[in-house]
Amino acid sequence: QKINSHFAQGIAIGGCIFLALGLFFLFLASGKITTLFLFSYFIGRALLLIVMLGHHLYYAFPYEQSFRGIEFPILVSASSLFLLLFTSTLFKLKTLNRNLDKALKGMCWLLFLYIPISLYLSVVENFYIMLCLYWVVTLGLLFIGFRLVKAATKFAALFIFIISIQLISGLVLSAGAIWPQLTFFHNAELFSSVMFWFDGLILIFLVSKLYNREIQEKQAAQKEVLHSAMEAREAQEALLELQKENQEQLEFRVQELSLIHI
């Protein structure tokens, strides 16, 4: 049973890292900063899953009390930070809604400043602060999602669904950490792995839909440019034909006048 558990953990962790590497190669191919932020988010989530499944620094160095729980605030904050940056670039909030972009940047600075501070706090203090920050970020993203839906932004509803799933999984995992005696959390590892995988796959689905829309828009723009070029070419050919007819008529009139004078 222990071997099966390790095997399942290996599949879950390896799958998350594989998804992250796939996004990294996509970034190298496309050069889009959106995929770089999503790759960083996936790497942070994969490392967080590794720690949640028990493979953390304190497990490797049990006599170093300073390593106990040190990864959680760093990884949760870093992954949330990259998710915020991904959201900002994905929906182009800087041009779409500057107030939402400022609020999102404020949350980014809050997470960024918390990371070095967390190194000087206890495990319990970090847990509750991290929990509060997680709810602030998740609810903030939900609010942004509803504002985007109100502005009729494409795929905003799908984004709300993704954040809602994260909200539910965060609620369940937080309850499991606070009340570990609940019977549901005997399979907390399986639940964490499934939710991490589902989160990753649905985010990739969102990005693929957006890329597909961009490709369709580029193809439509190229067709429009090609159609305009063909129309311009036809107009130019018609103008040349008209100039040729006018030239022939002019030459004919000149010849007529020459014959009259003769």
Brief rundown of the structure:
This protein is mostly helical and 262 residues long. Helices cover 85% and strands 0% of the residues. The chain has helices spanning 2-30, 33-52, 57-60, 71-90, 93-96, 98-118, 123-150, 156-178, 188-261.
Please, could you describe this protein's structure?
- With 262 residues, the chain is mostly helical.
- It has nine helices and no strands.
- The chain has helices at residues 2-30, 33-52, 57-60, 71-90, 93-96, 98-118, 123-150, 156-178, 188-261.
- α1 (2-30) runs parallel beside α9 and α2 (33-52) runs antiparallel to α4.
- The longest helix has 74 residues, at 188-261.
- It starts with a helix and ends with a helix.
Principal-axes shape call:
elongated
SS content category:
mainly alpha
How many β-strands, per DSSP? 0
The percent of residues in helical segments reads: over 70%
What string, H for helix and E for strand, traces the elements in order? Answer: HHHHHHHHH
Q: What summary fits the major beta sheet?
A: none
Q: Number of helical segments?
A: 9
Rounded to an integer in angstroms, the radius of gyration calculated over CA atoms is 30 Å
Amino-to-carboxy terminus distance: 117 Å
Q: How much of the sequence is in beta strands?
A: under 5%
Mean pLDDT: 79
* Low-confidence blocks of residues: none
